[in-house]
Design brief:
Strands 1-4-8-5 form a four-stranded antiparallel sheet. Strands 2-3 form a two-stranded antiparallel sheet. It has a two-stranded parallel ribbon with strand order 6-7. Helices cover 33% and strands 9% of the residues. With 254 residues, it is an alpha+beta fold.
Length: 254
Protein backbone atom coordinates (compact mmCIF):
# COMPACT_ATOMS: atom_id res chain seq x y z
CA UNK A 1 0.00 0.00 0.00
CA UNK A 2 2.82 2.41 0.90
CA UNK A 3 4.57 1.59 -2.36
CA UNK A 4 1.38 2.33 -4.26
CA UNK A 5 1.01 5.71 -2.56
CA UNK A 6 4.63 6.57 -3.35
CA UNK A 7 4.12 5.51 -6.96
CA UNK A 8 0.98 7.64 -7.30
CA UNK A 9 2.76 10.61 -5.74
CA UNK A 10 5.65 10.31 -8.18
CA UNK A 11 3.23 10.15 -11.11
CA UNK A 12 1.42 13.26 -9.93
CA UNK A 13 4.71 15.09 -9.53
CA UNK A 14 5.80 14.08 -13.00
CA UNK A 15 2.54 15.43 -14.41
CA UNK A 16 2.83 18.74 -12.57
CA UNK A 17 3.39 21.57 -15.00
CA UNK A 18 2.45 19.46 -18.01
CA UNK A 19 -0.07 20.34 -20.68
CA UNK A 20 -2.62 22.96 -19.62
CA UNK A 21 -5.96 23.48 -21.31
CA UNK A 22 -7.13 26.80 -22.74
CA UNK A 23 -7.80 29.57 -20.26
CA UNK A 24 -11.40 30.09 -19.16
CA UNK A 25 -12.96 33.39 -20.18
CA UNK A 26 -15.40 35.78 -18.51
CA UNK A 27 -17.80 38.20 -20.14
CA UNK A 28 -17.13 41.89 -19.71
CA UNK A 29 -20.29 43.93 -20.14
CA UNK A 30 -19.56 46.89 -22.36
CA UNK A 31 -19.98 50.51 -21.43
CA UNK A 32 -18.44 53.95 -21.59
CA UNK A 33 -15.36 55.17 -19.77
CA UNK A 34 -12.89 58.04 -20.00
CA UNK A 35 -9.35 56.82 -20.72
CA UNK A 36 -6.24 58.80 -19.89
CA UNK A 37 -5.93 60.21 -23.40
CA UNK A 38 -9.63 61.14 -23.60
CA UNK A 39 -10.23 64.88 -23.69
CA UNK A 40 -13.93 64.37 -24.39
CA UNK A 41 -15.77 63.94 -21.10
CA UNK A 42 -18.31 61.70 -22.82
CA UNK A 43 -15.59 59.03 -23.02
CA UNK A 44 -15.27 56.06 -25.36
CA UNK A 45 -17.65 53.13 -25.74
CA UNK A 46 -16.52 49.52 -25.39
CA UNK A 47 -18.72 46.69 -26.70
CA UNK A 48 -19.36 43.50 -24.75
CA UNK A 49 -16.43 41.09 -25.04
CA UNK A 50 -14.84 38.05 -23.43
CA UNK A 51 -11.51 38.16 -21.62
CA UNK A 52 -9.22 35.41 -20.32
CA UNK A 53 -9.45 35.07 -16.55
CA UNK A 54 -5.66 34.68 -16.31
CA UNK A 55 -2.64 35.66 -18.36
CA UNK A 56 -1.27 32.93 -20.64
CA UNK A 57 1.19 30.75 -18.72
CA UNK A 58 4.65 29.49 -19.63
CA UNK A 59 3.28 25.96 -19.81
CA UNK A 60 0.48 26.99 -22.18
CA UNK A 61 2.94 28.77 -24.45
CA UNK A 62 5.23 25.74 -24.39
CA UNK A 63 2.28 23.57 -25.45
CA UNK A 64 1.61 26.05 -28.26
CA UNK A 65 5.18 25.70 -29.55
CA UNK A 66 4.75 21.94 -29.95
CA UNK A 67 2.21 22.52 -32.71
CA UNK A 68 3.55 25.87 -33.94
CA UNK A 69 7.32 25.34 -34.10
CA UNK A 70 7.96 28.52 -36.10
CA UNK A 71 7.73 30.38 -32.77
CA UNK A 72 10.45 28.34 -31.07
CA UNK A 73 13.38 30.40 -29.88
CA UNK A 74 15.82 28.75 -32.29
CA UNK A 75 13.55 29.23 -35.29
CA UNK A 76 11.78 32.57 -34.83
CA UNK A 77 12.85 35.32 -37.22
CA UNK A 78 14.37 38.42 -35.65
CA UNK A 79 11.85 40.49 -37.58
CA UNK A 80 9.20 39.00 -35.27
CA UNK A 81 11.14 38.66 -32.01
CA UNK A 82 14.32 40.21 -30.69
CA UNK A 83 17.23 38.49 -28.93
CA UNK A 84 15.44 38.43 -25.55
CA UNK A 85 12.67 36.17 -26.83
CA UNK A 86 12.11 33.30 -24.34
CA UNK A 87 15.59 34.05 -23.05
CA UNK A 88 15.08 32.38 -19.65
CA UNK A 89 13.91 29.06 -21.12
CA UNK A 90 16.42 26.21 -21.00
CA UNK A 91 15.79 25.37 -24.67
CA UNK A 92 13.03 25.15 -27.27
CA UNK A 93 11.18 22.37 -25.49
CA UNK A 94 12.17 22.77 -21.85
CA UNK A 95 11.34 25.58 -19.46
CA UNK A 96 14.09 24.72 -17.01
CA UNK A 97 14.50 25.45 -13.31
CA UNK A 98 14.41 29.23 -13.73
CA UNK A 99 10.93 29.31 -15.27
CA UNK A 100 7.75 28.43 -13.38
CA UNK A 101 5.25 26.68 -15.70
CA UNK A 102 2.36 28.33 -13.83
CA UNK A 103 3.71 31.87 -14.05
CA UNK A 104 2.68 34.28 -16.79
CA UNK A 105 4.50 33.74 -20.08
CA UNK A 106 6.82 36.70 -20.62
CA UNK A 107 9.72 37.60 -22.94
CA UNK A 108 7.28 37.05 -25.80
CA UNK A 109 6.86 39.45 -28.70
CA UNK A 110 3.60 41.03 -29.83
CA UNK A 111 3.71 38.97 -33.01
CA UNK A 112 3.97 35.71 -31.09
CA UNK A 113 1.27 36.71 -28.59
CA UNK A 114 -1.06 37.76 -31.42
CA UNK A 115 -0.59 34.45 -33.24
CA UNK A 116 -1.07 32.46 -30.04
CA UNK A 117 -4.45 34.09 -29.48
CA UNK A 118 -5.46 33.67 -33.12
CA UNK A 119 -4.70 29.96 -32.94
CA UNK A 120 -7.04 29.72 -29.93
CA UNK A 121 -9.82 31.39 -31.94
CA UNK A 122 -9.24 34.52 -29.89
CA UNK A 123 -7.36 37.82 -30.21
CA UNK A 124 -5.44 40.30 -28.11
CA UNK A 125 -7.61 42.80 -26.27
CA UNK A 126 -7.61 46.33 -27.59
CA UNK A 127 -6.06 48.99 -25.40
CA UNK A 128 -9.51 50.39 -24.53
CA UNK A 129 -10.83 46.92 -23.69
CA UNK A 130 -7.86 46.23 -21.43
CA UNK A 131 -8.12 49.57 -19.64
CA UNK A 132 -11.89 49.16 -19.27
CA UNK A 133 -11.49 45.78 -17.54
CA UNK A 134 -8.55 47.01 -15.47
CA UNK A 135 -10.47 49.89 -13.90
CA UNK A 136 -12.62 47.36 -12.01
CA UNK A 137 -11.83 46.70 -8.36
CA UNK A 138 -13.03 43.65 -6.45
CA UNK A 139 -16.46 45.19 -5.92
CA UNK A 140 -16.87 47.96 -8.51
CA UNK A 141 -16.98 47.84 -12.31
CA UNK A 142 -15.55 51.35 -12.35
CA UNK A 143 -13.21 52.18 -9.48
CA UNK A 144 -11.56 55.18 -11.11
CA UNK A 145 -12.46 57.38 -8.15
CA UNK A 146 -11.62 54.79 -5.47
CA UNK A 147 -8.46 56.19 -3.86
CA UNK A 148 -7.67 52.98 -1.93
CA UNK A 149 -7.88 50.85 -5.08
CA UNK A 150 -5.76 53.30 -7.06
CA UNK A 151 -3.13 53.42 -4.31
CA UNK A 152 -3.00 49.62 -4.33
CA UNK A 153 -2.28 49.67 -8.08
CA UNK A 154 0.52 52.20 -7.70
CA UNK A 155 2.08 50.19 -4.89
CA UNK A 156 1.85 46.96 -6.88
CA UNK A 157 3.89 48.55 -9.67
CA UNK A 158 6.70 49.13 -7.19
CA UNK A 159 7.01 45.47 -6.15
CA UNK A 160 10.07 43.66 -7.58
CA UNK A 161 9.99 40.55 -9.78
CA UNK A 162 6.23 40.05 -9.65
CA UNK A 163 6.53 38.22 -13.00
CA UNK A 164 7.83 35.24 -11.03
CA UNK A 165 4.56 34.83 -9.15
CA UNK A 166 2.01 32.27 -10.29
CA UNK A 167 -1.14 33.36 -12.09
CA UNK A 168 -4.03 34.02 -9.73
CA UNK A 169 -1.71 35.59 -7.16
CA UNK A 170 -3.58 38.90 -7.20
CA UNK A 171 -7.19 39.79 -6.51
CA UNK A 172 -10.22 38.76 -8.60
CA UNK A 173 -11.93 41.87 -9.90
CA UNK A 174 -15.61 42.68 -10.38
CA UNK A 175 -15.71 40.77 -13.69
CA UNK A 176 -13.96 37.69 -12.30
CA UNK A 177 -10.61 38.56 -13.91
CA UNK A 178 -7.28 38.06 -12.11
CA UNK A 179 -3.86 39.67 -12.37
CA UNK A 180 -4.59 42.80 -14.41
CA UNK A 181 -2.45 44.65 -11.88
CA UNK A 182 0.48 43.47 -9.81
CA UNK A 183 1.77 40.58 -11.93
CA UNK A 184 3.02 41.60 -15.40
CA UNK A 185 2.41 44.27 -18.01
CA UNK A 186 0.32 42.95 -20.92
CA UNK A 187 0.34 43.35 -24.68
CA UNK A 188 -2.72 44.88 -26.36
CA UNK A 189 -3.59 44.63 -30.04
CA UNK A 190 -3.11 48.36 -30.61
CA UNK A 191 -0.41 49.09 -28.02
CA UNK A 192 1.05 51.94 -30.10
CA UNK A 193 -2.18 53.42 -31.42
CA UNK A 194 -2.05 56.56 -29.28
CA UNK A 195 1.33 57.46 -30.70
CA UNK A 196 0.75 56.27 -34.26
CA UNK A 197 -2.65 57.19 -35.66
CA UNK A 198 -1.75 58.68 -39.05
CA UNK A 199 0.45 61.21 -40.75
CA UNK A 200 -0.88 64.44 -39.39
CA UNK A 201 0.57 67.27 -37.37
CA UNK A 202 -2.12 66.59 -34.81
CA UNK A 203 -0.42 63.31 -33.84
CA UNK A 204 2.56 65.26 -32.57
CA UNK A 205 0.29 67.23 -30.27
CA UNK A 206 -1.29 64.00 -29.02
CA UNK A 207 2.11 62.50 -28.26
CA UNK A 208 3.32 65.64 -26.52
CA UNK A 209 0.24 66.04 -24.31
CA UNK A 210 0.19 62.40 -23.28
CA UNK A 211 3.84 61.64 -22.63
CA UNK A 212 5.35 64.97 -21.65
CA UNK A 213 4.98 67.03 -18.51
CA UNK A 214 1.44 68.14 -19.24
CA UNK A 215 0.23 64.58 -18.73
CA UNK A 216 1.29 64.70 -15.10
CA UNK A 217 -0.18 68.18 -14.72
CA UNK A 218 -3.54 67.08 -16.11
CA UNK A 219 -3.66 63.89 -14.04
CA UNK A 220 -6.26 64.47 -11.37
CA UNK A 221 -6.06 61.23 -9.39
CA UNK A 222 -3.91 58.17 -8.76
CA UNK A 223 -5.73 56.23 -11.48
CA UNK A 224 -4.38 58.80 -13.95
CA UNK A 225 -0.83 58.27 -12.71
CA UNK A 226 -1.14 54.47 -12.95
CA UNK A 227 -2.61 54.74 -16.44
CA UNK A 228 0.12 57.19 -17.44
CA UNK A 229 2.73 54.60 -16.51
CA UNK A 230 1.01 51.99 -18.69
CA UNK A 231 0.58 54.30 -21.69
CA UNK A 232 4.18 55.50 -21.41
CA UNK A 233 5.40 51.91 -21.25
CA UNK A 234 3.34 50.92 -24.29
CA UNK A 235 4.64 53.94 -26.15
CA UNK A 236 8.20 52.69 -25.68
CA UNK A 237 7.52 49.29 -27.24
CA UNK A 238 8.12 47.81 -30.67
CA UNK A 239 6.23 44.73 -31.81
CA UNK A 240 9.30 42.49 -31.84
CA UNK A 241 10.35 43.39 -28.29
CA UNK A 242 10.45 40.53 -25.78
CA UNK A 243 10.52 41.84 -22.22
CA UNK A 244 10.82 39.89 -18.99
CA UNK A 245 7.97 41.80 -17.33
CA UNK A 246 5.60 41.80 -20.33
CA UNK A 247 3.04 39.04 -20.90
CA UNK A 248 -0.40 38.74 -22.46
CA UNK A 249 -3.89 37.33 -22.27
CA UNK A 250 -6.50 36.79 -24.96
CA UNK A 251 -9.88 38.33 -25.65
CA UNK A 252 -12.81 37.48 -27.89
CA UNK A 253 -15.65 39.48 -29.36
CA UNK A 254 -18.92 38.50 -27.72
Amino acid sequence: MIRLIILLASVLLSLAGRSQGPTEMKKINGGTFVPLYGSDSSGVFVDDYMLDIYPVTNQQFLDFLKTHPKWKRSKVKRLFADGNYLIKWENDSTLGDKVNPNSAATSISWYAAKDYCACQGKRLASMDEWEYAAMASETKANAQTDSIFNLMIIESYELPKTYKKEIGSTYKNYWGIYDLHGLVWEWTSDFNSVLISGESRQDVDTERSLFCGSAAINASNLMDYAAFMRYAFRGSLKANYAIQTLGFRCAKSN
